[in-house]
Design goal:
Keywords: Cytoplasm, Electron transport, Redox-active center, Transport. One of its GO terms (biological process) is cellular response to oxidative stress. It comes from Halopseudomonas salegens. The protein is built from four helices and four strands. It is α+β, with helices and mostly antiparallel strands. The protein has a single domain, classed as Glutaredoxin (3-Layer(aba) Sandwich), CATH 3.40.30. The protein has a two-stranded parallel sheet. α1 runs parallel beside α3.
């Protein structure tokens, strides 16, 4: 997950993933233009944070992650 230390959406996404007992890699893009450029390229041009992948599956941002959770699709994606 690409994120920022100052982003409330990043904090919410991390809270959800942590509530699932997951260990995940967090790449902080604050003050890192090359990391943000890499994130933007990988996310198909999206520049906002967070940008989340589960395995090789691109999820999107916090809203998409929460939608997966509400629809019951997140746990199967996580292998739970």
């Amino acid at each position: 997950m690409y994120s920022s230390n100052y982003c409330p959406f990043c904090i919410r996404a991390k809270q959800l993933l942590e509530s699932k007992g997951l260990n995940f890699e967090e790449i902080i893009v604050d003050g890192q233009p090359q990391l943000r450029a890499d994130m933007t390229r990988l996310a198909g041009g999206r520049t906002s944070v967070p940008q989340i992948w589960i395995g090789q599956t691109y999820v999107g941002g916090c809203d998409e992650l929460l939608t997966l959770e509400r629809s019951g699709q997140l746990d199967p994606l996580l292998g739970n």
